[in-house]
Amino acid sequence: MISKSLVIIGGGPAGLAAAIAAYDAGERDILVLERDCVLGGILNQCIHNGFGLHTFKEELTGPEYSARYVRKVEERKIEAKLDTMVIDLSNDRIVTAINETDGLFRIAAKAVILAMGCRERPRGALNIPGARPAGIFSAGTAQRFVNIEGYMPGREIVILGSGDIGLIMARRLTLEGAKVRMVCEIMPYSGGLKRNIVQCLDDYDIPLRLSHTVTKIHGKDRVEGVSVAAVDDNRMPIAGTEEFVSCDTLLLSVGLIPENELTRKAGVAINPKTQGAIVDESLETTIPGIFAAGNVLHVHDLVDHVSTEAELAGKNAVRFIRGLDKGSSAVAIETGFGVRYTVPSRVHPAAATAITTIRFRTDNVYRDSYLSVLLDDERVQHLKKRILTPGEMEEVLIPAKWLLTRPGLKKITILVEKE
Amino acid sequence: MKIPRGIAADTADLVRPKEIAMHDIIIIGAGVIGASVARALSAYEAKTIVLEKNHDVCEETSKANSGIVHAGYDAHPGTNKAKYNLRGSRMMAAFCHEHQIPYRNNGSLVLAFAEEDLPKLEALRAQGTQNGVAGLRILTAEEAKRLEPNLNSEVRGALLAPTGGIVDPFELTIAQAEIAAVNGVEFSFDTLVSGIHPIPDGYRVSTDRGVYEAKIVVNCAGVRADELNNMVSSRKLSITPRKGEYCLFDKQVGTLVDHTIFQLPTQFGKGVLVTPTAEGNLLIGPTAFDIDDKNDVSTTAEGLAEVVKKAKQSVVSVPTGFVITAFAGLRATEKGGDFVIGEAPDAKGFYNAAGIESPGLTSAPAIGDDLAVQITEALHVSLKSAPLCKRPPVVRFESMSFDDKAAAIRRDPAFGKIVCRCELVTAAEILDAIRRPLGATTIDGIKRRSRAGSGRCQGGFCSPRVMHLLATECGLDPRDIAKYDQHSTLLVGFDKDDL
Q1: Do B325 and A133 touch (CB under 8 A)?
Q2: What confidence category does residue B48 fall into, taking pLDDT thresholds of 50, 70 and 90?
Q3: Closest alpha carbon within chain A to B401
Q4: Per-domain residue ranges for chain A?
Q5: Of A406, B233, B325, B460, which sees the most CB atoms within 10 A?
Q6: What are the chain A neighbours of B472 within 8 Å (beta carbons)?
Q7: Mean pLDDT of A107-119
Q8: Which residues contact B418 (CB under 8 A, 6 or more apart)?
Q9: A172 near A197, Cβ under 8 Å?
């Protein structure tokens, strides 16, 4: 068995940023395990721009953004194994991996960072009735075909789901010569970023049908069309609104799920809301020395946030390796009205940095509301928000002094208030 | 698809028009019944060919069913269903073990939800005992809950059938077809039978790929078996496709129940079941709707809603958020209500395996054995002197031990490359699925042989990679690679082709 101080599972944006941060915190014995043949993860197929506005203050494409991190990894000579799949992780941080050259091998790691990213939900997750012909793709698969392989998955496209990948693919496919008939969204609001709706749909006159869904897929061998219907407040199709839309391809952009097979194998507790690990302020999971960051922890909108989150995990993994004690008492972070989840879900006052960032999503669209923070029952933040929407991740910042000046503090509650 | 598949040396002759290929036996249909008959006949000195209208084996009802090895208490005593169910159930464990087919003897429960239904459980038990089913026992609600803690608390009692089991229906079909193929049975795919005519000493079978003649024809044509029978026999059969819809769940929730959970049967079938699959998923279904169209395997909003509703009656906590796919299959329901097995009374040499609905999967190997005996006796052919060749071993990386995994990669580095993340399928296994006898040439064919694409992302991640391996290995243009036949290609062209 090989020994390593830090093993990072995944060489996408989260894994790379974590590796660099750990190196810069003084750790040298780092190994990144990446299942693809190149570093960079899903960014390699995200050839559109819009990455890096926060991190680099400029608009980069996905490959450009990841290249900057890959270069830093190479400059630091951080070891990375490509084409390497981790197939097991134990609760005592034994990593089992395979590749074609090393075969099957085990690594005993002092700390592990989970950075496996997420995957797309399939058709079954929606249970769309109808036939099962060729021509039904998840948006990311279509993106790979078009951007990496150079093939078109269809000519006339309907996209179900207005998540960012769906919006991006509406534009991409249009630019490559396909006709995108419409984007349907079952919710009354889009799950994607406002800028993507403007730049990917509005600019190309692609209709966005809110509160609409696909109720049936037609075609025996290849998709021939879909039935589209309006839905009511309970997201049930409204009788009589159904219309047939001719197309040869249905693209699904219906949500992403963190990829936590290994996390579960290790016995890490999972938050059912995020389908990612439950973590504290250091992004340590419920198993000591196993950290998580990026889309494997919770699905982000912006890679920039993935990078900053992963840097935190990298730094804290090094602190763990050095035996830094976080203290025993932790304050729970609870979700109040309107808040679906928070990451992290607890914070150790003794270990908290000057500012602890709590990221979360709301469970609905809230206009002209207030974002509040309660320390036990005391309201310490009451921020006016013009709009809060599930499609955009929000954050609140908790200064360490809030925690340190309240020794008996039990819980922090994040909530949306009407006034 | 450009490559014709699975045809032995005389392929060239077949496609030449007006050339007649002579065989002893023609089997029509390569579902689980056709494959079982072919496997059983391959032990005999007979020249046998299987004609299949689809591009692969296991393309219709055999790929879309419950995957249950029924204990045998459902069928009325004295029927073919009762006879073959029991035989099939009894032989299944050893058969699957011998041929590397995923199978588990998980036992089954039939639930009653009302006190007044308890006598129906008792009647079922008595019927099963009369059929020869061993070990049937009535459980109290408490006993049932002890066996299956997730059962609905409305349960009032249950029938336990310890011999019930689950089997991978794909592998049960594919394995038998492979055994048949390695023992000399020919397969001709994409071959649609359009007519059957008696000739002296046999039948002439017309297809869209040429004409075949044989002394014996075996009709294993599933929902179309009535049409074939009616071409040669005045004892008309009438098969109504009875659609059954299912939802398949993520393996993460595959242990919600351990037994196969039935509800008391109705006139339309065995009701909606909740079961683990032999591969470790959770499966609920099927509905039972008689339909007109023998091609209609679409799911419906009403059907899927009914499946969920009825499944929740057995297990309230059925986790609908974990559905990974839904599908529908067609039962070949014959108006007589029983399997029609054996030589048609007025058509010498024409054998039926018709009306094979549930418990058809369970019965299949036994039906194959029985028909092979009947047919070879009529043909006066004997068993081959040499033992049957086995199918090539199936190697599943995921289920290997640590040391076996290490050894496998040392032997073949392609075991070190994961293609399907969800099911942990390696490149070596995909290549094997392609290279096996009657190997896969489509994305679905690979899925059913290797499980690549059958997991929680349903091929989202691996389909481009599987496509690469198929294209390289078979020398195909990726644009010609299909889901299951030449019309179901996945890609429509290069980027900017239509600009």
Answers
A1: no
A2: very high
A3: A104
A4: 1-119+256-324, 122-254, 326-419
A5: B460
A6: none
A7: 97
A8: A35, A85, A87, A98, B424, B425, B426, B427
A9: no
| Residue B64 binned pLDDT confidence (cut-offs 50, 70, 90) | very high
* Predicted confidence (pLDDT) at residue B219 exceeds the cutoff of 50: yes
Q: Do B464 and A216 touch (CB under 8 A)?
A: no
Search chain B and give the residue with CA nearest A153. B491
Q: Taking CB atoms and an 8 Å limit, are A98 and B415 in contact across chains? A: yes
ipTM of the complex: 0.93
* Per-residue model confidence (pLDDT) at position B18: 54
Exposed, middle or buried by CB within 10 Å (0-12, 13-18, 19+), for B105?
Answer: middle
Q: What is the pLDDT of residue B269?
A: 67
pLDDT digits (tens, 9 = 90+) for B93-107: 999 999 999 999 999
Residue B70 appears among annotated catalytic residues: yes
What pLDDT digit, counting tens, does each position of A21-51 carry? 999 999 999 999 999 999 999 999 999 999 9
Gap between the Cα atoms of B377 and B382, Å rounded? 8
The single-letter code of the amino acid at B155 is V
Of B301, B418, B463, the CB nearest to A129: B301
Q: What class has domain A1-119+256-324?
A: alpha beta
- Give the chain A residue nearest B497 (alpha carbons): A177
d(CA A240, CA A390): 30
Q: What residue has token string 């005592």?
A: A92
DSSP string, B47-97: -EEEE-SSSSSS-SGGGSS--EE--S-SSPTTSHHHHHHHHHHHHHHHHHH
Given this chain, do its domains A1-119+256-324 and A122-254 carry the same CATH topology? yes
Beta bridge partners of B244: B329
Please determine, for residue A206, whether its predicted confidence score (pLDDT) is greater than 70.
Answer: yes
Largest CA distance in chain B: 70
User: Rounded to an integer, what distance in angstroms lies between the CA atom of residue A351 and that of residue A323?
Assistant: 12
User: Which superfamily does CATH assign the domain made up of A122-254 to?
Assistant: FAD/NAD(P)-binding domain (3.50.50.60)
Q: Which residues of A touch B493 (CB under 8 A)?
A: 151-152
Structure tokens at A179: 């006709």
Strands A249-252, A136-138: pairing is: parallel
Q: How far is CA A59 from CA A20, A55, B314, in A?
A: 22, 10, 55
Q: Is B301 in contact with A154 (Cβ distance < 8 A)?
A: no
Q: What Rg do the C-alpha atoms of chain A give, in angstroms?
A: 22
Given a contact cutoff of 8 angstroms between Cβ atoms, the answer to whether A23 and A130 are in contact is: no
Structural domains in chain B plus CATH codes: 1-102+167-238+335-391 (3.50.50.60), 103-166+240-334 (3.30.9.10), 397-480 (1.10.10)
